[in-house]
Specification:
- The chain has 188 residues and is mainly alpha-helical.
- It has 2 domains: 43 residues, no CATH class; 141 residues, Phosphatidylinositol 3-kinase Catalytic Subunit, Chain A, Domain 5 (Orthogonal Bundle), CATH 1.10.1070.
- It is 43% helix and 11% strand.
- The strands form 2 sheets. A 3-stranded antiparallel sheet has the order 3-4-5.
- Strand 1 and strand 2 form a beta hairpin.
- Helix 5 packs across helix 6.
- The longest helix is centred in the middle third of the chain and has 22 residues.
Length: 188
């Protein structure tokens, strides 16, 4: 359980747990998987509350289908710039964005969506796979294709990545890949 006990704190329901207590929430299969692949449980800031909920894109799609709306069109309508920035971030940093780890914040009392939730679930970030398909675009395209489209539209200045210090949890290969992907987008 070496990997599990080195983890950051995580929140289970309304309780923050850490260290060995995390193991008590995992099945034996989950423990074996974590130890086998070296998966680390990631700590994300809690962004929900009694007043604010997360509506995952998976749930948002169900809502949209009930009302005959295109969920991707609606996601762009809510905040097109943020939607495009997620596509750029996913290409540079995280190749595991899926329908359960992005979405919107909702006021519980009114049911009103207030915008995108913060990005979270980065346990597969910095894995250097080529040609990963985007899971947040309606059209079938790679993460790179989605990021190129977004970068052409937004023209973000990504040079600040070159000025950053290498994060201590990234090895040289991972950090070099991050910088190389950002540089590819800067060439557009």
């Amino acid at each position: 359980m070496r990997e599990i006990t080195k983890c950051y704190k995580i929140r289970i329901s309304d309780k923050i747990i850490s260290g060995q207590e995390i193991a008590s929430y995992l099945t034996e299969e989950g423990k074996d998987w974590i130890n086998g692949v070296g998966k680390v449980i990631v700590n994300s800031e809690l962004f929900t509350s009694e007043e604010i909920s997360l509506v995952t894109f998976e749930k948002f799609k169900i809502f949209c289908s009930y009302y005959g709306m295109n969920p991707y069109t609606e996601a762009e309508r809510i905040d097109r710039e943020r939607y495009r920035k997620i596509q750029i971030a996913d290409f540079i940093l995280n190749n595991d964005r899926h329908e359960q780890n992005w979405g919107f914040l909702m006021e519980n009392e009114t049911g009103k969506l207030t915008g995108y939730c913060p990005l979270f679930d980065h346990d597969h970030a910095f894995v250097n796979y080529d040609y990963v398909m985007s899971q947040i675009t309606e059209a079938a395209m790679t993460l790179e294709d989605a990021a190129v489209r977004a970068q052409k539209e937004l023209g973000l200045d990504l040079r600040m990545l070159n000025e950053m210090e290498q994060p201590r949890f990234l090895n040289d290969v991972q950090w070099d890949a991050v910088l190389e992907r950002a540089d590819r987008l800067l060439q557009i």
